[in-house]
């Protein structure tokens, strides 16, 4: 019996691409001997992307539980790679930022990320790769707008 689900639809393709790129990134991080786990490297990368960021928003971006992000931040703060600062508007909330000690690791993570993206691109011409990136940005924007409308309607 056929399910009616196209295994090559865009949702499955994007999920597979994400899973494969993440797996390649994690393998390369594990082999690089950076002193952080692949999961910790993802946390550092997301903090670098949008710092300073509140802990709960970081957990949401990574798709992990808030308790889990606290554990990661505790370890990375203990290693001197992250710092927490109280939100001046809400003392209960904490902002997370990279420390100066994180930058040598971040440089290596950038190199690993570049290598993974290069492997993913393969022989795809630069123009087509850029069109794919721009299309993905538009899709993300469309979905973010839908999500925002739903939030606004719920209020």
Automatic annotation (TrEMBL):
InterPro entries xref list: HTH_MarR-typ, MarR/SlyA-like, WH-like_DNA-bd_sf, WH_DNA-bd_sf
Annotated HTH marR-type domain residues: 7-141
BP terms from Gene Ontology: response to stress
Annotated SUPFAM superfamilies: Winged helix' DNA-binding domain
Keyword Cell cycle: no
Molecular function in Gene Ontology: DNA binding; DNA-binding transcription factor activity
Entry keyword Oxidoreductase: no
UniProt KW keywords: DNA-binding, Transcription, Transcription regulation
Pfam family, one: MarR
PANTHER family per UniProt: TRANSCRIPTIONAL REGULATOR SLYA, TRANSCRIPTIONAL REGULATOR, MARR FAMILY
Protein known as: MarR family transcriptional regulator
Lineage: Bacteria, Pseudomonadati, Pseudomonadota, Alphaproteobacteria, Hyphomicrobiales
